């Protein structure tokens, strides 16, 4: 066959195939009435299959955050016909005008894409809606899960979910309008693990809004994949107990397991029930909480910057020993305070002169003014001495973010040299200019989380792991190296032993008397932080047992006076609860429960 004949054959074959296609299309579109009927009465609908969000457990397997099924009522505007607006609005318990606004908004978004017109409808309410949907063409239900918090606790730790912002939609193709996302806390930090993977189901729907089956028997469907479950380091019972003790008080409690950096409890008060921020009432409740003058959204544990008060004397005792400006036999006198020039920093009455261990037991201000002055004056200039002092302080995680796995953490403040140069001029300030730092006052600002970590560092005799609240994902231990790097201080071990022995004496015969229970050896330190806006803050830090610490804890109770009065008993009760699961001092517990200090100043 020559080239001309081949070309002719190809043309003929091409024309025959084309005629066959045209003929088949003519049959389907013009002659075949059955296909006309199907096209007129059947439409495809892509339904997003939302995955169940991963749940969150406490360290003992107790459920902290779970899910319940809810429904969104979706609308495809182009499919809506003969709509009885009043009847559907009544069925949804929505005002007719509000319903019309929502429908117009859906049309403005897209006439062809599904949009939620009513969200997060509880299952018991949706039953009646589902029965009536056959009368409302273009509307259908879409199931999703909603968070539930069985114990109503730990709102600031867990965070909440909210509708995704347009900015995030533009940044991440996973999200679409109407989706929900972790907004803060654990929900935000572990969003990618918790959210799972969405699926799609393509359904065939008839003119009466009834589903007639899956398109092409479901071969184009994709399955949703549930989010990963998280295991938290929180202890539900300890968290609940801490929240109960802090009722009607302003402040925070943070408890850490020293050996691991795992957060056992993180209590804030004022707080809120996390169940208030789920479901159809979320927006209303959010507005109320946001405008509440008690600021229940404020995460004191990570965001409040308090003075460390006298608890900071422990650190000055450690730095003094390491810089060879202090030893256990160093003695200073105290005449009800520390005098310098025409000024005097006061102190309470106690025996004088006194040595290192007794200075910690009695929390002597004058002693630590001398210690601080000696540290700064051990170098040619105050600035050089201050740089040495500050570098040791920073090693304990103070003055910088700890990088916990929660949102909103602040740095606190351990002022750099430039801070004082700006106020006093370079070379124009000395130890006495900033002497209040000696007793944990002045410009120092620490968070309760930093204080608990500082206590854990002392309990460990000089090291800590970054505090964190999630210990496993889908049953597998976390692998983020952030939480497994040992942060080591450069203060020698023997100096910790000296300070810790004195902390034990604080509980036995010092300012922390009354904290001790059973035969468990507790080491602690009281603090009373001056507050320019009102009554002093009550502070206590402690760890136990002394030689095998299982818990390190920091307690701040705002505007209520001495650390020994309120913070110390709360600390003691928390330790007893965690280590023994019993309370042997019901009278103290009752006093803490019933105390209303919210308005104390």
Blueprint (SSEs and pairs):
Layout: H1 3-31, H2 33-41, E1 42-49, E2 56-57, E3 63-75, H3 85-91, H4 96-109, E4 115-122, H5 123-132, E5 139-148, H6 155-158, E6 161-163, H7 166-171, E7 180-182, H8 185-189, H9 191-195, E8 199-206, E9 211-214, E10 230-232, H10 236-245, E11 251-257, E12 262-269, H11 282-291, H12 300-303, H13 313-322, E13 337-340, E14 343-346, H14 356-362, H15 365-377, H16 382-394, H17 417-424, H18 448-459, E15 463-464, E16 470-473, E17 476-477, E18 487-488, H19 493-509, E19 523-529, E20 537-544, E21 551-557, H20 567-580, H21 586-594
Helix pairs in contact: 3-4, 10-20, 13-15, 14-19
Shape: elongated
Number of strands: 21
The separation of the N and C termini measures 108 Å
CATH topology annotation of the largest domain: Beta-lactamase
Number of helices: 21
Broad CATH class of the largest domain: Alpha Beta
Q: Tell me about the biggest sheet?
A: 7 strands, mixed
Number of domain units: 2
Share of helix among residues? Answer: 25-40%
Oligomeric status? single chain
Tell me what portion of residues adopts beta-strand conformation: 15-25%
């Amino acid at each position: 066959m020559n080239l001309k004949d081949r070309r002719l054959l190809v043309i003929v074959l091409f024309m025959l195939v084309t005629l066959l296609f045209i003929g088949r299309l003519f049959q389907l579109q013009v002659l075949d009435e059955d296909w006309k009927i199907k096209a007129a009465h059947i439409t495809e609908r892509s339904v997003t299959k939302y995955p169940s969000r991963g749940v969150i457990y406490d360290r003992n397997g107790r459920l902290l955050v779970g899910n319940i099924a809810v429904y969104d009522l979706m609308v495809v505007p182009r499919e809506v016909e003969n709509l009885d607006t009043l009847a559907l609005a009544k069925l949804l318990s929505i005002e007719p005008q509000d319903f019309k606004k929502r429908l117009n908004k859906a049309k403005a978004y897209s006439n062809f894409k599904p949009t939620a017109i009513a969200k997060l409808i509880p299952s018991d309410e949706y039953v009646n809606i589902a029965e009536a949907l056959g009368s409302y063409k273009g509307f259908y239900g879409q199931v999703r899960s909603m968070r539930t918090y069985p114990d109503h606790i730990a709102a600031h730790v867990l965070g909440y979910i909210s509708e995704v912002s347009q900015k995030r939609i533009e940044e991440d193709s996973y999200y679409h309008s109407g989706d929900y996302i972790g907004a803060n806390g654990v929900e935000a930090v572990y969003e990618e693990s918790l959210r799972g993977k969405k699926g799609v189901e393509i359904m065939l729907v008839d003119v009466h809004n009834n589903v007639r089956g899956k398109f092409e028997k479901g071969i184009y469907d994709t399955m949703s994949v549930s989010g990963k479950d998280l295991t938290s380091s929180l202890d539900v019972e300890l968290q609940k107990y801490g929240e109960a003790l802090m009722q009607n008080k302003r402040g925070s409690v943070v408890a850490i397991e020293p050996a691991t950096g795992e957060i056992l409890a993180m209590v804030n008060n004022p707080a809120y029930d996390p169940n208030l921020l789920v479901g159809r009432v979320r927006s209303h409740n959010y507005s109320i909480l946001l405008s509440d003058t008690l600021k229940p959204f404020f995460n004191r544990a990570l965001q409040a910057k308090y003075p460390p008060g006298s608890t900071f004397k422990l650190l000055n005792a450690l730095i003094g020993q390491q810089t060879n400006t202090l030893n256990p036999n160093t003695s200073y006198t105290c005449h009800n305070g520390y005098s310098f020039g025409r000024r005097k920093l006061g102190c309470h009455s106690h025996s004088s002169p006194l040595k290192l261990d007794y200075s910690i037991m009695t929390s002597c201000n004058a002693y630590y003014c001398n210690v601080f002055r000696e540290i700064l004056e051990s170098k040619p200039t105050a600035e050089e001495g201050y740089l040495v002092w500050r570098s040791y302080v920073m090693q304990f995680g103070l003055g910088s973010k700890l990088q916990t796995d929660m949102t909103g953490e602040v740095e606190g403040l351990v002022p750099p040299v430039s801070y004082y140069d700006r106020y006093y001029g370079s070379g124009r300030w000395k130890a006495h200019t900033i002497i209040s730092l000696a007793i944990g006052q002045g410009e120092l600002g620490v968070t309760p989380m930093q204080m608990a970590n500082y206590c854990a560092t002392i309990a460990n005799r000089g090291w800590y792991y970054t505090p964190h609240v999630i210990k496993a994902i889908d049953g597998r231990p976390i692998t983020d190296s952030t939480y497994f790097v040992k942060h080591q201080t450069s203060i020698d071990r023997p100096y910790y032993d000296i300070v810790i022995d004195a902390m034990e004496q604080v509980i036995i015969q010092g300012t922390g008397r009354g904290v001790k229970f059973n035969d468990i050896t507790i080491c602690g330190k009281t603090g009373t932080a001056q507050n320019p806006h009102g009554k002093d803050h009550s502070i206590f830090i402690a760890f136990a047992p002394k030689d095998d610490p299982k818990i390190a804890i920091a307690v701040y109770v705002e505007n209520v006076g001495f650390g020994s009065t309120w913070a110390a008993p709360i600390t003691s009760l928390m330790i007893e609860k965690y280590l023994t699961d019993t309370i042997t001092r019901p009278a103290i517990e009752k006093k803490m429960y019933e105390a209303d200090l919210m308005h104390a100043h």
